[in-house]
Amino acid sequence: MSASIESFAGRVVRCERLREDREVQGDVVIVGTGAGGGVAAEILARAGLKVILVEAGDFKTRADFHMQEAEAYPELYQEVASRKTMDKAITILQGRALGGSTTVNWTICFYIPEPTLKHWAGRYGLGMFDEQELSPWYEEMEKRLRVQLWTRHNPSNLALQRGAKKLNWKHEIAHRNVHNCRSLGYCGTGCPVDAKQSMLITTIPGALQKGAMLLTRCRADRLKWKDGRVEMLECSALDSKGSDTTGVRIRVRARHFVVAGGGIESPALLMRSQVPDPSALLGRRTFLHLTAGSAAMMSERIDPYYGAPQSVYSNEFLWRDGVDGEVGYKMETAPLHPVLAATAFKAWGQAHAGFMHQIPHIQPLIALLRDGFHEDSPGGRVHLRDDGTAVLDYPITDYLWRGARAAFASMAELQFAAGANKVLPLHSDARLYGNWKQARKAIADLPMQPLHAQLFSAHVMGGCMMGPDPERSVVDTDGNHHQIENLSVIDGSLFPTSIGANPSMPIYALAARQASRLAKRIRS
Amino acid sequence: MPTHPPREHSPARRRFLQTSFAGVLVLAGSSLVVRRSLADTAAAANPYAWLEDQDALIVRRVAPVLLSGALPDGKARGEVLDEIVYGFDLAVSYFPPSVRGEIRQLFDLLRNSITRALLAGMFSSWEKATPAQIEHLLKRWEHSRFRLLRSAYAALHDLVAGAWYGNPRSWPRIGYPGPPVLK
Ligand SMILES: Cc1cc2nc3c(=O)[nH]c(=O)nc-3n(C[C@H](O)[C@H](O)[C@H](O)COP(=O)(O)OP(=O)(O)OC[C@H]3O[C@@H](n4cnc5c(N)ncnc54)[C@H](O)[C@@H]3O)c2cc1C
Hints:
The complex is a heterodimer.
Chain A: E1 12-14, E2 22-25, E3 28-31, H1 35-46, E4 51-54, H2 69-76, E5 83-84, E6 90-92, E7 108-109, H3 114-124, H4 131-144, E8 147-149, H5 155-167, E9 172-173, E10 175-177, H6 203-209, E11 213-216, E12 218-226, E13 229-238, E14 245-253, E15 256-259, H7 265-272, E16 286-287, E17 291-297, E18 312-314, E19 329-333, H8 338-344, H9 349-357, E20 362-369, E21 381-384, E22 390-393, H10 398-417, E23 422-425, H11 436-445, E24 455-457, E25 461-462, E26 487-489, H12 504-523
Helix pairs in contact in A: 1-6, 1-12, 4-12, 5-10, 10-11
Chain B: H1 12-19, H2 21-27, H3 32-42, H4 53-66, H5 75-94, H6 97-111, H7 113-120, H8 131-142, H9 147-165, H10 171-174
Helix pairs in contact in B: 2-6, 4-5, 4-8, 4-9, 5-9
Bound molecules: flavin-adenine dinucleotide.
């Protein structure tokens, strides 16, 4: 156990308060403190390297987490939790916080599914990532983050279990990275009791204890490189809201530079820095686990805002049509707090008020489509706006629309089997359906179009694809940039496809592996 | 910083109704520039972090229609509307400049009498707009065949609904008991 983050306040520079430009120096600078950056920081610091952490999010501790959406979304998420793809069709949830998305994530933990690893081995030359290679790293991170099997299911997860059982669909219970969890249900607004083993309370204090320095409200703008080596990272101080720059600049010099800003932001930083991109894959193949939702009205109280958000899941449709057949989806529940519900349901007036009135009885299901396994699912592409900020262009192909339609149907079927009185697919042309037969018929006719179906993502992946071949990947299988020798990427942006399961644990495990190898490399 | 990469996917013409309010405003011959410089000088007196008085008026008029059936009546209503405008403003003030810019364009479009009539079918000023006219606007945008208008609807919807349901005053009305009290 490491001491809590408050005790290291002296090693933290809150850049919104800086009045003058600053220059700092270390052995390694890490951009981003999420799943990838947090894990890498602790390992590199423990290896005796002087680590500098650069984070756009604000310095927060559990005392700042009040289980209020109105506070958490502006302060802990990218773009007030309503980041959109370029055509505004998909809402992307991503953390922008000390601890990255792990500070707001829902703590369910999975491995990279076997079929995904096989697909990667066959298609992308990633055969080194087999079970034998990965399992010690999973083990290490499971211990570090106190991962445990979760058995105290809330009514929402019990409904998923009940429905799947009734239909004879596969279903299992999940692991979570929590300790002394009180089942509050507010993982998404920052854990107020430090039960969630996010980077905020584990690896970040762990790194600070070993002498790391942390810069918050500090945005990495670009890497200055020459002759195949990065010399410096240029950053801007952000104001207290994180929305604008203050004009103060921070320059960071180091021997090695780790980019861990997550999907979208990591490739964007490399694009702004105009690093070589001979494979033309930088920012491309960005995946989302495109997610559709369905709301069931149950007679009993569900209180979908309370309890561990996700603890039961169904893989019934995940691989049903083979790895590279029709897109498969994992089915899970989601926590539903008032703002999330009010914005996910796009009606207005009486229809909206009536829906919100039902909230204690709503059972929300989500289906996460594993994108990237089929040629009709090439993912999205990061663009830079004129001001250098990133936006994801993610065209939703017919292949994905077919998957979304199938997912709406499966969710409704499961919810009726679980005892729903009515089911509402989150789609602006859908109605409340009273039984499965009616729902099935209606869903078959719903127009599958952007801004009709409500689509979400909380799992941005890819954009800095790893692989052995510089012609076909951005970084190598250790995350080291193919062309720039002292630059690595360590986060979810490495994946060549989505993984088909919630990605935090795979990111932790790969980060641990990559950072350990990097530590050796830097010291030698 | 590098400029925007070329948009090879779709010609600008097809895109303007998909992604840019600015295009619509230009086509409508809006006198944006003049208005903006006037607004800049007036900004000091305004109580909001980002909204201008005219924008706040729009939010205040749209909210009771968008949230009809959800807000309290009587004296409380005025207070609640103030809080919704405040919550809306606060959320926008946290957006990065690029997103704030898009919302600015949306308000410009709603404030400009030509674009308002053209795209929202609203021929009166916001001061005089009736609930029926605002309902008409919401219906039209909610189901528009233009993605841009659908996304404008979604933005207004989410900011207004988010501002209300993030407010603890809304919770007893929907049976949400609120976060547990920590001991
Ligand atoms: C609401 C939500 C719920 C989730 N639930 C689960 C779950 O239950 N289980 C699961 O497995 N996964 C879950 N995830 C996903 C998981 O948390 C993420 O996939 C994972 O944290 C991604 O790790 P990362 O290192 O790639 O990026 P992140 O964890 O997102 O961290 C990136 C960090 O880098 C910072 N950053 C980016 N660019 C810059 C820059 N230029 N300068 C400075 N800082 C920068 C960002 O502010 C951010 O803090 C959830 C995600 C969300 C948003």
